[in-house]
Amino acid sequence: MQKLLIEGGHLLNGKVKISGAKNSAVALLPASILADSPVTIEGLPQISDVYTLSDLLEEIGGQVHWNGQNVTIHPEKMVAMPLPNGKVKKLRASYYFMGAMLGKFKKAVIGLPGGCYLGPRPIDQHIKGFEALGAEVKNEQGAIYLRAKELRGARIYLDVVSVGATINIMLAAVLAKGKTIIENAAKEPEIIDVATLLTNMGAKIKGVGTDVIRIEGVPSLHGCKHTIIPDRIEAGTYAIAAAAQGKEVILDNVITQHIESLLAKLREMGVTVEESDEQLYIAPRQPLKSVDIKTLVYPGFPTDLQQPFTTLLTKADNTGIVTDTIYSARLKHIDELRRMNAVIKVQGGSVIVNGPVQLEGAKVKASDLRAGAALVIAGLMANGVTEITGVEHIDRGYEKITEKLTNLGANIWREKLTEEEILQIRNS
Ligand SMILES: CC(=O)N[C@H]1[C@@H](OP(=O)(O)OP(=O)(O)OC[C@H]2O[C@@H](n3ccc(=O)[nH]c3=O)[C@H](O)[C@@H]2O)O[C@H](CO)[C@@H](O)[C@@H]1O
Ligand SMILES: C=C(OP(=O)(O)O)C(=O)O
């Protein structure tokens, strides 16, 4: 186990390359199960979620050949091996094995997923979709059992707009007989990326990027080559870090339209933001002005950037209010930021940040991925040294974060936890 140490106060300057999108990668890999021949995916991020899914594909009999950031998956020998325990609990996206295995084998046993604790994260809409397609679904002893004689297309209205349910139903429906219509579907760029892969595999999908997706089932799908989209949340995190502690930072490999909601807020705060082909230039002007944000489904402000943005607001003049309408309990970073001198109140479902304050280095814990990102940014801004434990959460979603920030001029390094620190974490 490791901890991350940051000596704050150094200005970020230079260029950082954004990696492939985690939330696409974690769906593209399971989608390969649906093909009858090899699928190559290029530009995958080197993060632990990707490696865990790669291991799970091998557990069900897939052959997975890595070549740097590119992977070729041979699905020919895959079988409907139950995955009730073990690695499925390490991440959220193992739930995509449900849709993909149900679609391909008409049966699956998959443990309930893990991932960041953001308050309750039900999967009732995924199950509603599988049942509408003709599957029998049972939840027994922490695993979901799915079985269908055959899958038949259906009209499915999602009661809540869900990224995971939209993708999972798409995965199950592409090999179903007849037409599936997903209404009130999510519109996130990662959904379009997954639909692009499936279409390249021979699936017939229309309407992705709108709230009605139409799928005409096909009898089989074949292999293909696909390049993943850039990670808009990683890009957003570096953009926020640059606004908080940057001189001039260029983000390379960005689809800037994917983070317009963030860029609009940065501009409102007085940050210089210039967009060009696949690049973003960020240069903060002091002092920053406070703004309010409310997270919404895409193209609204992403919940995954709410925690890092809260850190930025500690530096802004006056009061900023953060409201997360997707995960109202996504608040575990707040106490840690307070340890670092932030003045933050949680009131009536909103987070009220009073700035500007000078953050101070402290020992803090990343309880989830984006809380970790929020604390890394806080560490870059703080006086003195910040020690962050819970690094395994950060490594689920940020490729080479230490190296990327070092290249931008940060003083950040990893150390092994001592036995005593490991004990303390276990007992806390
Ligand atoms: C692997 C992945 O892509 N993770 C992302 C995905 O998570 P995930 O797919 O789990 O999130 P959803 O879009 O499904 O969740 C949105 C909201 O719907 C609720 N809900 C969801 C499904 C369901 O069956 N029932 C239900 O009530 C959730 O509790 C939440 O309040 O989208 C979230 C919202 O953008 C992001 O924070 C996560 O980074
Ligand atoms: C919440 C997140 O991830 P997951 O859904 O994989 O837990 C995230 O990426 O911010």
Automatic annotation (TrEMBL):
UDP-N-acetyl-alpha-D-glucosamine binds at residues 92, 121-125, 304, 326. It catalyses: phosphoenolpyruvate + UDP-N-acetyl-alpha-D-glucosamine = UDP-N-acetyl-3-O-(1-carboxyvinyl)-alpha-D-glucosamine + phosphate. It comes from the Bacteria. The modification 2-(S-cysteinyl)pyruvic acid O-phosphothioketal is found at residue 116. Keywords: Cell cycle, Cell division, Cell shape, Cell wall biogenesis/degradation, Cytoplasm, Peptidoglycan synthesis, Pyruvate, Transferase. GO terms for molecular function: UDP-N-acetylglucosamine 1-carboxyvinyltransferase activity. GO terms for biological process: cell division; cell wall organization; peptidoglycan biosynthetic process; regulation of cell shape; UDP-N-acetylgalactosamine biosynthetic process. Coiled coil: none annotated. Residues 7-405 form the Enolpyruvate transferase domain. It is an enzyme of class 2 (transferase). Gene3D superfamilies: Enolpyruvate transferase domain. The active site is at 116 (proton donor). Phosphoenolpyruvate binds at residues 22-23. Pathway: Cell wall biogenesis; peptidoglycan biosynthesis. Its main location: cytoplasm. Its EC number is 2.5.1.7. Pfam families: EPSP_synthase. It is found in: Cytoplasm. One of its GO terms (cellular component) is cytoplasm. Cell wall formation. Adds enolpyruvyl to UDP-N-acetylglucosamine. Belongs to the EPSP synthase family. MurA subfamily. This is UDP-N-acetylglucosamine 1-carboxyvinyltransferase. It comes from Compostibacillus humi.
